[in-house]
Amino acid sequence: MSRDYEQFPEDENGEVLWQMHKDGDDLTEPHEIEFSIAFTTEENADRCALHLLKEEQKISLFQDEESDRLEWVITIYVYLEPCYEDIVDLEQWFTKIASDFQGEYDGWGCMAYVYDDIDDEDILTS
């Protein structure tokens, strides 16, 4: 399998998308991608959460007690086909929002959607 460097550039996002593609994930299907922003104060997290809700974003907010430091995390759920340009654009937007509310953009992730092509003839019946 040959890598298309326009579709999967040589950076962290390109590497993740390339690995998803190599693993058989169908990148033409929409995925729920989770972007995270971390905060050191609950007040800033609350203000940012309200801003994101006003921007009509689907979010969750929780206190991460397992972190090395006490922090609050907002997860933003975006349903889209995982393409490099869209992910980079959203990262830039969420990085700016994080900065506006004294938070730190903390990356993205999603569940893989891998489908096996199984013919009816391949299914064993008893």
UniProtKB/TrEMBL annotation:
InterPro entries: RraB-like_sf (IPR036701), RraB_dom (IPR009671). It comes from the Bacteria. Residues 10-110 form the Regulator of ribonuclease activity B domain. This is Ribonuclease E inhibitor RraB. It comes from Acinetobacter wanghuae.
